[in-house]
Design a protein that fits this description.
With 422 residues, the chain is of the alpha/beta class. The chain is built from 13 helices and 17 strands. Strands 2, 3, 4, 5, 6 and 12 form a six-stranded mixed sheet that branches. It starts with 8 loop residues before the first helix and ends with a strand.
């Protein structure tokens, strides 16, 4: 009997073809059919063993290459440390744009056609890691971002959008045992009150679990100089409120903040109501109270009660589990002992992989991003700014160094605060 060793895909295919042909020739004899099937199964098992052996050999080769790559990577990083020391001694910046372009162009040119894109990303990522390591050398003495301890005990003045019974007003009760609300009509009035020192703190909605981000708050965050010092979450349960005696069929239009209208869109659509945006849900309730028309407000039950309105229907929001997150802002950088969320705002160049390359910095620092949001910049051709939340504390070296790196490298960067959700 001859022994044949089949190592390639072509030879294996030849083996299978021969066996199948033999099986068909003996199609009328049960014993030979069984023998043919048995041979075919053996061949299949042999092929599987060959594939496993091939794969194992390939993996061993990859492991060997990985070992060489790791040694070379370590060598390259050690050289980068020396480069950083030279740059520090000679007052040179970390980022050298022309040098990076030169390297990327060279390695891409030298790469095979099917690996040019992958080669570019590989070397770009390695150089981004190199820059991160160099920045750590540059900011070796940076261990913390300056801040003051947050103390919300005692009585404080808080700028609050709306009036008594607004969701912002209710959210304040989660943060303060005692506070004096300074009610303001517009969100910008809250930022202005804090900026001008009329109020110690201000409270604003930032995101809703049903309707998403509160765009107006994000836009104002970019315009004003402030810091987030605390956050809180409130369950939002909307009601339809009218002046006493007004019936559902009498309602001409419904007034509320745009978030309230969005969160109750199913109810509004089901009744065919016309809608009008208002600055605040509680101010909408106040407007209904003072109006002679049969209008309705979408607001909190507390706001309806404060305005003496009749509640026609409760829990009219689309989602039963409907929550809004609020932020507490101040002029100073305050931080509580358990603060674990950091918010920043930044702009990136319109270049391929710019967001991916930014995220590399967080990965190298071992920091976990929990939120990323892009918002358009007014009066631009669809330029955007990014708002990022990540876990950490500004009195730790890895966070302090990363913030210093972002401040130095990006054309626009703003540290928004380090806080905990109460």
């Amino acid at each position: 009997m001859s022994l044949y060793v089949f190592t390639g895909a072509v030879q294996r295919e030849m083996l299978f073809s021969a066996l199948i042909k033999k099986l068909l020739q003996n199609g009328g004899k049960d014993g030979k059919i069984k023998t043919g099937i048995f041979c075919l199964q053996n061949a299949a098992n042999l092929t599987v063993r060959m594939i496993k052996m091939d794969l194992q050999e390939l993996r061993l080769q990859i492991n060997d290459v990985d070992k060489q790559l790791q040694e070379l990577f370590t060598k390259r990083m050690r050289l980068c440390y020396q480069v950083a020391e030279y740059k520090i001694a000679n007052d040179l910046p970390v980022f050298h744009k022309d040098r990076e372009k030169e390297i990327i162009a060279r390695v891409t040119e030298n790469a095979p056609d099917d690996l040019k894109g992958a080669t570019r990303v590989y070397f770009q990522t390695m150089m981004d890691v190199s820059k991160c390591m160099q920045y750590q050398q540059f900011f070796a003495d940076t261990d913390s971002v300056p801040y003051k301890p947050l103390d919300l005990s005692g009585r404080h003045t808080v700028a609050v959008p709306g009036t008594n019974g607004s969701y912002n007003h209710l959210a304040c009760s989660n943060l303060f045992d005692d506070f004096e609300p300074l009610f303001r009509e517009e969100f910008e009035d809250v930022f202005r009150a804090v900026s001008e020192g009329e109020a110690e703190f201000g409270i604003l909605p930032i995101v809703n679990s049903t309707a998403g981000s509160v765009a107006q708050t994000y836009e104002l965050m970019k315009q004003y100089d402030f810091k987030i010092c605390a956050g809180t979450k409130l369950r939002i349960s909307h009601c339809l409120a009218v002046k006493a005696g007004t019936k559902m069929e009498d309602i001409k239009a419904v007034y509320s903040h745009e978030q309230g209208l969005q969160q109750c869109s199913d109810f509004i659509r089901g009744h065919g109501f016309k809608t009008h945006r208002y600055a605040n849900t509680s101010l909408a309730a106040k407007f209904i109270k003072e109006s002679a028309e049969p209008f309705a407000a979408i607001c909190s039950e507390k706001a309806a009660e404060e305005c003496g309105l009749e509640i026609l229907q409760k829990n009219i929001q689309n989602a039963e589990e409907n929550y809004t997150k609020f932020i507490l802002i101040s002029r100073e950088t305050y931080k509580s002992a358990n603060a674990n969320t950091i918010s920043v705002c930044l702009a990136l160049p319109h270049q391929s992989s710019s967001l991916y390359r930014l995220l590399t910095k967080f990965s190298v620092a071992g920091l976990n991003l929990s939120m990323i949001e892009s918002m358009p910049i007014a009066n631009t051709d669809f330029d955007v700014v990014f708002y990022l939340d990540f876990h950490g504390a500004i009195d730790t070296p890895e966070v302090a160094k990363l913030i210093s790196e972002l401040e130095q490298e990006l054309s626009y960067f703003k540290f928004l605060g380090n806080y905990e959700e109460v």
